[in-house]
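Quick one from the shared queue. A colleague (R.T.) flagged Enzyme related to lactoylglutathione lyase as missing a structural entry in our internal table.

Convert sequence to structure tokens.
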Amino acid sequence: MSATDKKSLFSRVGYLYIPANNIDESIEWYQSKLGLTLKMPKFQDDIGNVAVLSPPEGDVVILLAETKDDTTANFLRNGLPFQTVTLNCPDLKYTHEKLKDSGVEVSEIRNRGENAKYFLITDPSGNLIEAAWSIWD
């Protein structure tokens, strides 16, 4: 079979799951603080409540998955908590100031090499979300 005869196995990243300890509080926070849009009312899947949100611009879908477990979407990288979700910002400084002024827990803006900058946001369940700008966006 030649390379041109191969079908792609995947078309894109479908969605990102983020655990939420209180789904109603998290829905409100993601809408009011981050400006995400609730795509449909929360619903029950085979495990618990789920909410579907997305940024006003873009095609990424975030699924908040309610859990009673003490967990986050973060993982350890060299012993430090590390985020699994990044939201791109056309104006990083504006976004940082706007979120900070609205009471969102944010880190300082940091450089990632010469071509990117980011800061971290902490949601009500303790998930870290990266807000980023880079020359690749």
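Residues 42 and 93 are 32 Å apart (CA to CA).
Helices lie at 23-32, 92-101.
Added to the table.
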